[in-house]
Amino acid sequence: MGTRILLAGLWLIHGLPLRAIAAIAAPLGFVAAHSKLARTTLINLRACFPNLTERERSILARQHLTALVRSVLELGILWWSPVTRIRSLVCFKNAHFVTDATRPVICLSPHTTGLEMQGALIGMHFRGVGFFTPHKNPLIDQQLRRARDRLGDVIMLERKKGLRPLVRAIRDGRLLYFLPDMDFGEANAHFVPFFGIPAATVPTLPWLARQCDAVVIPCACHRLPDHRGYEVEFFPPWKDFPSEDLDHDLQRMNRFIEEQARDYPAEYYWSHKRFRTRPDPTEPYFYRWPPSPDDPSALH
């Protein structure tokens, strides 16, 4: 019942201007920032921005959670609004890096609050392929899949089915929109610094680039000022990637994601438990609450 009410609410507001949706999100973000939902965000911000004051981190946590709420409220735009409206809300910057590519393309992107808008625009302009884990809620998962189907020529492949279908799709010329900055557990993970903290990092990107002879083009989606929508910015294709040094490649990947998180801190996914898996299994749980003063994630 709760999910159906949420879907009904998203449908009711999906035609509103972004400014109006932002006004709805503001009080909801304030509530989220003062609830248990803020714990993971605050612990991540304490670990990654130790030089900020507690008040500065609290303000940043509220800004992030408000942006996250806005992104949820804007899902209705992707699900039910005309394609012409979506195109008007999201623009490309430096898309020529993709259109000029003479090899298969993998777009490396961090998880930001605009990731669904970014995926929609990429899917509307390029033959694409996505690699995803189904949403736990079947109704939400159904809506996400329908939106992707109606907005472009994109095929979605589940992670549990392995990498072979993904390799075939990339070799066939489909652009992969790839977001690797999640903690997928200990299996196959390399512990690579992210904000100076060892983070479980999957080696999939350099492996795919080598298997598919693909060029990696970093990109990121950020919200435009004055409620004008979103911009997807592409950066120059990486040269000498992958290299012969896997750790170097993974450090390069994490560095780019960290740069984007520093430049747009309110929009990065701090609400994800990025440091859940630790290199030393005897370490205390990173996200325990209340934290210990001795932990790198401790809140003072």
User: In CATH, what is the class?
Assistant: Alpha Beta
Question: What spatial form do the alpha-carbon principal axes imply?
Answer: globular
- Estimate the strand proportion: 15-25%
- Counted up, domains total 1
State the distance separating the first and last CA atoms: 40 Å
Mean pLDDT, all residues: 92
Secondary structural class? alpha/beta
> What fold name stands as the CATH topology?
Glycerol-3-phosphate (1)-acyltransferase
Architecture, according to CATH? 3-Layer(aba) Sandwich
Task: Report the order of strands and helices.
Answer: HHHHHHEHEHEHEHEEEHEEH
- How much helical structure, as a percent, in the residues? 40-55%
* C-alpha Rg (nearest Å): 19 Å
**Largest sheet composition:** 7 strands, mixed
Helices, by number, come to 12
Return residue spans where pLDDT drops below 50 for at least 5 consecutive residues. 296-300
Quantity of strands, as a count: 9
Spatially, the strands of the biggest sheet line up as 1-9-8-2-5-3-4
